[in-house]
Structures are given as C-alpha cells and as structure tokens.
Write a structure and sequence with these properties.
By secondary structure, the protein is α/β, with parallel strands linked by helices. The chain has eleven helices and 14 strands. The strands form three sheets. A seven-stranded parallel beta sheet has the order 8-9-7-6-12-13-14, sandwiched between helices. The termini are far apart.
Length: 371
C-alpha cells in the first residue's frame, strides 16, 4: 500500500467530524489515518509531521479534533498542545507510548487541556491495533460531541447549580466506612481538581478505578500524592486499607476488597474476571464494596464514556449505600454518570467541585482544631 493518507474524501462533508493527525512518524500518520478514515462519521482533514506544521494546519483546516503525538523532535507534543489551547482551542487527543517518561508528559498534557490520550501499542498483535482503533474513534467522537455542546455547557455553568441536594432527603444514610469512586475520560484532570482538597484526617479510605493503560497509574498516583494532604498510592495486593488513604487501582488489575473482620479490610488485585471491557472495572470494584460494606458504602460516579460503574452503583444503591453522580455541565464526557442518572440510582447529582463536600458531609467530617 502507498504511504499517503488513504480514504481521504476530497469532498468535505459538513456532518463528518474533521480530524487533523499529527505525528513525526510517517508509519503512525498512515496507521492513524486508516483507523480514523475507517469510520464513516470521521474525515481525515489532513496530517502534520511536526509541531509548527500542526499549528499551520490547525489554522488552515480548522479541524474539529486533533490527534497529537507526545514525543516529537523540536516542538514536542506538550509545547504544541499549549500553543493550540492558547491560540486555537479545540479538543486534542494525545497519542502516547507507555514509557514512564511519556506517561508523565501525557499527564502534563491532560493538565494543560488535552481532552484524553490513547496508547501507541501498534507493534505487537493485530488485536492491539483493533483495540486502539475502537478507542481512538470513540474518543474522537466524544471529544467532538463535547466541543459541539460546549456553548450549552458554558451557559449551564453560568447559571446557579440546580438544587441537586434535593434529589434525596439529607440524612437517610449511615456515615460510610468506605468510598468507591469510578471515572474514565476526563478523569485525571477531575481527580487532580478534587483529591487535593480532601483533608489529611479523612475518616474513610477511598478506592479509585480510573481507566488507564499499563504504565500510567503509578506515575499518576505519585503525582496526585505530591499535590494532596491525603495519602494517595497505587494499590497493592493484600494491602490492609487505612482511613485517609486513596488507593488507585493499577492498570491491568481489578481491585476488590476482602473484609475478613469489621476492623480489617484487605485489597485483592486480580486480572479475573477477564470478560470485562475494562480492567480495572468500576463495576467489579463497586460490586465488591457493596457486598462487603452494604449500607456503609458510598459510590461516586464521574466523567467518562460508556456505562462501566452502572451495575456497581446499582449494587451500592440496592444495599442502601449513598450514591453520588457528577453533573452533566462539569463532565468532560457525560456517559457513565448519565447511565446511572437514567437508571434512577443516584441519591445526589452535583458539580465536580462539590464532590469533596459530599464526601465530607457523608462522613460527618469535623475539622480537628490544633492546640
């Protein structure tokens, strides 16, 4: 096959999502172009091999979404992203290798405004390529949808939030003994916004499933820990959970709890069940927490594509635990919380900024006075 971009339809279809692909590797530009062009809703507006060329093409082509390589010679992906966000803001999806260095830079790009990222594992099995194709197409569509809705979102955010607290009576719930939090697309930035605001003497542990590829969760946990008063770590198998600690499920492992006694709960990590679309799975974690803690569980579902977490939140709700969903206006992608809201299993729906307040109120947090 020739190296030029395939399937590019010279007739610009207004209803299609126009995508600019930026990568210094000709192989990657071709591979990504083929993946994007294989979906009838997407259109490859053009490609660029460097940061400066990307900036020129953003101006001349005005794409809806940009895919941007993290590691490029000269102006790298982070510098290019910052220029795009400052001058021509639009959704940018980073394409990243899972090296520690690139994982850390990718987390910097999410902080700088990137919509999301996809891992660049194209060298091994064709199954990997297929997974990346589905992943990148879904994320491009979610990014474009977010951009088209952004004006509505801005007007929603300017209005005072609806009386979200009126969804349920204020105190029908016992104070939770554990918080289970599930999040996906838009999650790294969202967690970076809320976890540093939690107090060091929080009375409950928090388990977090953030969908991430292998190699990303350890640097992510370390980064969050450096920003936060609560202790944040990547979860370890057979670790006894402690109050005031946030445990991030490692990529490639489900996280469940084994509550052997009322005073001791142990984390269990496993790659089973392997029939889940995501490993770790929000559903697997929350169903385990619901089973172990019953009405003493608190479930929080935040920004993300798809429906992972719906069964888990339903399990917590059925056990009489407290369930909280992030509202549409503050979500990067209103997918996972939307499914839970439509199922009628959320006790409260609040903006992202109010989620720490929900945790503090539910756990009856009292600030300890010093001296």
């Amino acid at each position: 096959m020739s190296g030029h971009t395939p399937h590019v339809n010279p007739k610009r279809n207004k209803s299609q999502i126009h995508v600019l692909i930026v990568d210094d590797s000709a192989f990657m530009r071709t591979a990504l172009s083929r993946m994007v062009a294989s979906d009838p809703d997407l259109w490859v507006a053009g490609t660029a091999a460097s940061g400066p060329e990307a900036l020129q093409k953003v101006v001349s082509l005005d794409p809806d979404v940009v895919t941007l390589d993290v590691e490029m010679p000269g102006m790298d992906g982070l510098a290019t992203l910052r220029r795009i966000m400052a001058q021509f803001p639009r959704p940018v999806i980073m394409v990243s290798s899972a090296t520690v260095k690139e994982a850390e830079i990718t987390l910097d790009t999410l902080e700088a405004g990137a919509f999301d990222y996809v891992p660049k594992q194209l060298s091994s099995a064709s199954l990997d390529v297929l997974h990346i194709r589905e992943d990148i197409i879904a994320k491009i569509k979610a990014a474009a949808e977010g951009r088209r809705n952004s004006k509505d979102h801005l007007s929603l955010e300017r209005k005072p939030p609806r009386a979200a607290h009126l969804l349920a009576p204020q105190l029908p719930h016992a104070a939770p003994a554990i918080v289970a939090l599930g999040v996906s697309t838009g999650g790294p930035k969202a967690l970076e916004d809320i976890l540093p605001t939690l107090p060091a003497d929080l009375s409950v542990p928090i388990l977090v499933v953030q969908h991430m590829p292998p190699g990303f969760t350890a640097p992510f946990a370390k980064r969050l820990n450096n920003l936060s008063a609560v202790s944040i770590c990547e979860a370890s198998n057979q670790e006894v959970i402690q109050p005031g600690v946030v445990y991030i499920a490692p990529a490639g492992s489900h996280i469940t709890v084994d509550r052997t006694t009322n005073s001791r709960t142990v984390i269990c990590l496993s790659d089973k069940p392997d029939n889940q679309p995501h490993i770790p799975s929000v559903d697997v974690m929350m169903q385990s927490v619901a089973s172990a803690f019953g009405s003493l569980a608190m479930g929080i579902i935040m920004t993300g594509m798809g429906s992972d977490g719906a069964r888990g939140m339903d399990a917590i709700h059925r056990e009489g635990g407290l369930t909280v969903g992030q509202d549409e206006a503050s979500c990067a992608v209103y997918g996972m919380p939307r499914v839970c809201a439509e199922m009628g299993i959320l006790d409260r729906v609040v903006p992202l900024s109010k989620i720490p307040d929900e945790i503090r109120q539910a756990t009856r947090y009292q600030k300890t006075s010093v001296g």
